[in-house]
TrEMBL record, chain A:
GO terms for biological process, alphabetical: cell-cell signaling; gap junction-mediated intercellular transport; sensory perception of sound
Family the UniProt entry places it in: Belongs to the connexin family.
Designated name of the protein: Gap junction protein
Highest rank taxon of the organism: Eukaryota
Record's keyword annotation contains Cytoplasm: no
From TrEMBL, chain B:
N-terminal signal peptide: none
Subunit field text: A connexon is composed of a hexamer of connexins.
Protein's recorded name: Gap junction protein
Connexin cysteine-rich domain: residues covered: 134-201
Gene: Gjb7
Membrane spanning stretches: 21-39, 77-97, 118-142, 178-203
Gene Ontology MF terms in the entry: gap junction channel activity
Length: 262, 219
């Protein structure tokens, strides 16, 4: 088992994401997960074996390694990727709940339901509005928080993003201050900076997506308020209902087109 | 080691679960299975080779590591994952039995074989109780085997053939402790979810049954 299962889950959510969300997912998989699995794990593979201290005192190397690397970079990145991907499950669950409700309506024979069969409900792409908007926006917000927390934790634990070549250690049982040498420090620094840069890009994408969703929300609200002012009383209600119906019909046509083209 | 079977089992059972059950599956998958495979396996990979005792006496290191870590944390974690997911098989088998029965009689016996009602509800409740019980058992086992949820960086050992009290240094104790706490937190979360699901199902079906009984009494 590898990260492929995560790819399957997130791929399902991709269908209902905005364009920026899709770019974020691509960046996540290509520049973070793939780099982590294919390259970074190899660089950090021999981290403790090749962590050498200038002493023969048994236990000194173990204690010094544990002191300078309370949690390995690789594990911290893996945890970060898992936490950052988890909010997408909220959206997946909400979509699954909506599909379940539509299937229930369809089975009851509700005339409001515009679908012809269950397969159409399964393939339907939901628009990000109403309660789904709130779920989606919360998931982006949580993603941002997790990214920021992990980046800060990284900076705090390792005093910056540089891997030094030499560390001086005097933890017991080391007899005095001992020189310890890290394996492949330059390569590790390069990968650390790369992963931090990609994390920053992901944060920017999330912020952009959040701004886009908020802008869309306020524009839609002002449009509805404008429509209500222009057309008063019950005529207005019927018109808006007709508009909604038209939107739904045009959406289902669009979905059919998308379905055929995919 | 392939966890594909467990992953497929979890996805398959998702269909017959309640909402809370699905959240439980997501938590087990993301925070237990994925963290185990992606991060934790490598920390404990060379734990024996990387542990060091301050002695040259052959066999002393082996004996000391064996005494302080009778079962490695990682193996216990893997056992826990497997045992906790196994009660779900009861539900899967019961649904398969229902579908088989419908096929055998060639008629629709149930509204929906995967619907949690009647005897399937009892099976589901039993699987929930077993899952909760096993989570608690493994948490207690972790606590008892390792005297709390701490991993010391130094253990003092005086078992034969060690000639006297010897210092043994464990590799990566802080990292192991962080992931151990993570495991304990996830187990507690899973236990809370199981208990919530149990109370939700009991409450839901007692509300359903109560009006029926009340009507029968009136008649």
């Amino acid at each position: 088992m590898d990260w492929g299962a995560l790819h399957t889950i997130l791929g399902g959510v991709n269908k209902h994401s905005t364009s920026i969300g899709k770019i974020w997912l691509t960046v996540l998989f290509i520049f973070r997960i793939m780099i982590l699995v294919v390259a970074a794990e190899r660089v950090w593979g021999d981290e403790q074996d090749d962590f050498v201290c200038n002493t023969l005192q048994p236990g000194c190397r173990n204690v010094c390694y544990d002191h300078f690397f309370p949690i390995s970079h690789i594990r911290l990145w893996a945890l970060q990727l898992i936490f950052v991907s988890t909010p997408a499950l909220l959206v997946a669950m909400h979509v699954a709940y909506r599909r379940h409700e539509k299937k229930r309506q369809f089975r009851k024979g509700d005339q409001k339901c515009e679908f012809k069969d269950i397969e159409e409900i399964r393939k339907q792409r939901f628009r990000i509005e109403g309660s789904l908007w709130w779920t989606y926006t919360s998931s982006i917000f949580f993603r941002l928080i997790f990214e920021a927390v992990f980046m800060y934790a990284f900076y705090f634990m390792y005093d910056g993003f540089r891997m030094p070549r030499l560390m001086k250690c005097n933890a017991w049982p080391c007899p005095n201050t001992v020189d310890c040498f890290v394996s492949r420090p330059t390569e590790k620094t390069v990968f650390t900076i790369f992963m931090i840069a990609v994390s920053s890009i992901c944060i920017l994408l999330n912020v952009a997506e959040l701004c886009y969703l908020l802008t869309k929300f306020f524009l839609r609200r002002s449009k509805k308020a404008g429509n209500l002012k222009q057309q008063p009383n019950h005529e207005n209600k019927e018109e808006t209902k007709q508009n909604e119906m038209n939107e739904l019909i045009s959406d289902s046509c669009q979905n059919t087109v998308i379905g055929f083209s995919s | 080691m392939s966890w594909v079977f467990l992953r497929d089992l979890l996805s398959g059972v998702n269909k017959y679960s309640t909402g809370i059950g699905r959240i439980w599956v997501a938590v087990v998958f993301m925070f237990c299975l994925l963290v185990y495979v992606a991060a934790t396996e490598n920390i404990w990979k060379h734990e024996h080779d990387e542990s060091e005792c301050n002695i040259k006496q052959p066999g002393c290191e082996n004996v000391c590591v064996d005494h302080f870590f009778p079962v490695s944390h990682i193996r216990l974690w893997a056992l826990q994952l497997i045992m906790v997911s196994t009660p779900l098989l009861l539900v899967v088998f019961h649904v398969a039995y229902r579908e088989n029965r419908e096929k055998h009689h060639n008629q629709k016996l149930y509204k929906n074989p995967g619907n949690i009602d009647g005897r399937l509800l009892c099976t589901y409740l039993i699987s929930l109780i077993l899952k909760t019980g096993l989570e608690i058992v493994f948490l207690v086992l972790f606590y008892k085997l390792y005297s709390g949820f701490k991993i010391p960086c130094l253990v003092k050992c005086d078992i034969k053939p060690c000639p006297n009290t010897v210092d043994c240094y464990i590799s990566k104790p802080t990292e192991k402790m962080i992931f151990l706490y993570f495991l304990v937190a996830t187990s507690c979360l899973c236990t809370i979810l199981n208990l919530s699901e149990l109370s939700y199902l009991v409450f839901k079906y007692s509300i359903k049954c109560y009006p029926k009984r009340h009507m029968k009494k009136q008649q």
